[in-house]
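During the practical work, I selected for study one protein's amino acid sequence and its backbone structure tokens, as given directly below:
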Amino acid sequence: MNDRDNTLKTILNKIEDQGILEAIGDGISIQDRNYKVIYQNQIHKNFVGEHIGEYCYKAYEKRENVCDGCPVARAFQDGKTHTEQRSAPTEQGLSYFEITASPLRDIKGQIIAGIESARDITNNKKAEEALMESEAKFRNVVESSPMGMHMYKMESDDRLVFTGSNHAADQILGVDNSQFIGKTIEEAFPPLAATEVPERYRRAAKQGESWFTEQITYEHEQIAGAYLVHAFQAEPGKMVAMFLDITEKKKAENELKARAEEINALNELIQKVSSNLDLDKTVNEALDGLVSLINPDTVFLFLRDGDSLIPKGYRFSSEKYMQKEIKRHKIGKCMCGLAVTEGKPIFSRDIFSDLRCTWDECKNAGMNSFAALPLKRGDSVIGVLGVGAALHVNFEERASFLETLAGEISIGLQNALLFEEAKHHSEEIESANKELHKEIGVRVKAEKEQRRLTEELIIKNKELEQVLYVTSHDLRSPLVNVEGYGRELEYSLKDLMTSVDHADVPTSITDKINSIVKEDIPESLHYIRTSVSKMDILLKGILSLSRLGRYELTIAEIDMNSMMSDIVDSNRFKLNELNIKTDISGLPYCKGDSSQINQVFSNLLDNAVKYTDPERPGVIHISGYTDKDQSVYCMADNGIGIAADHQDKIFEIFHQLAPNRVKGEGMGLTIAHRIIERHNGKIWVE
């Protein structure tokens, strides 16, 4: 062991005995000149583990030789203290250390070892990195913000100095804000010196007092506009002013405010114009309202009368614009006349160069610009508003508002014109009302009379039906007696004839008796029987007709195809016997009393069969269709036909078309007619 080793051993013994290095809060290690670790305090061991007796570069960095830039090696070389930062994996993860190495000398001043302290600066490092990251994020926010940002710093002499801006500030203001760096706020933006802005910014920087204002109006050199500003403290002594250009927003707000004022004024005008029904008052309200809304130099209101425009009112802003006489205008002439024919507004900024303006009065009065606004009722034009200005004004810029204004005035004028028309025709209407009242009185009286007659007719019909029933019923009793006693008389006559034939009576008397008994009496009995039979048929018909009025109808839906098929089938024998063909087309359904409707079509078919033409095969065609809410049926045949003078009589009671040819009582069509009437229907012949 040499002197250096002895010295190191002595030093280490003292260190261990006194516990000086164990009490230090940093990790301490000592390495000999060969970089072998000869001492570690407990903190150092906690950092990197225990490596006494090992070479430091192998123990700490897993290397085979001394690390590049090793602070211990540098201390050995120049005898000075060296510090650097290094990271190393630990049980807690990657840790950062501040390494400080100093040479350890013997009493002769020779370097015999190196002492190294390791301080854990992981928390500081992470805080530093977090701060750098935060600053980077802040810078990113600043640069990416759509709002302009100005940064200021308070100096010790209370000067507020411009320190920087973001890209948005350059875009919003249209200047390079870097030119203001180092200048005070008053130097950078002179117009702000006379405002509260500098003081507000200072209070934000010094006291952290935030400030917000919706509008700062600024105009100086290249910068002009209205701005929204939010000032706040970035850190003590520093502040940021964020701003947005709200110039267009303010213009829009002002425009919106102006439009709102126009709408309010327009509403007032509408109320005034609409509340008047007097035409002259309506015209005056319209002209006064228009003057207050658009402040023209001249205003004319014309109403249309055929091919002319009649002046109804006017206003002038000054006597120098007054015209001595406002004449009629012709439709299609000048701008007002063209507005009528075209049915749309006509605008001109310079009437002197506009060929459409042919009315010299406006030019002579000093007008330069003009607007002709048609007053419309639906698609027709009832008049025109003429608006003139001495200055060159572009009325077309306010076309929408002017058309709305003209439209509302048109409504008021329409109401007034309608009221005048109503007044003009009031006497005629009153006279017509009187006549109408008279006519209504006559109609009411006639209706009452009609109801009275209808009620009487119903009573008479009921009485007639009762009379018919009683008559037909009561007359049958004596008729039965006549028929019965007639047959008894026939039997007695036969007995008398037999007795005469066997009696011993002179021939002259026998011949006379035979003439009476065999010729006169039988002929009389024949006429009696025939008359009785005919009377019986007539009474049955009357009885059937009277029963119809008392029959209670049961209304239901009827399948007419099925009913007609049944009716035809029930007459099939007679149809075949007479060689008559039937054809039934598709028949619509109807509503009625099934048995009564069956009676109608049975009578019609029976009538068609009776009156067939013997010269040709019979054909009966039955068809139907719907007409709105009614069903229409037709029974057509090729029979002998009905003469024109008989067509009005065929539905009369007991009427027969060919009584000598066809047997019957003439009641079939009468009954059919009565049944159809009770169903609120109609039956006719063609």
Summary: The mean pLDDT is 82. The two ends are 159 Å apart (CA to CA).
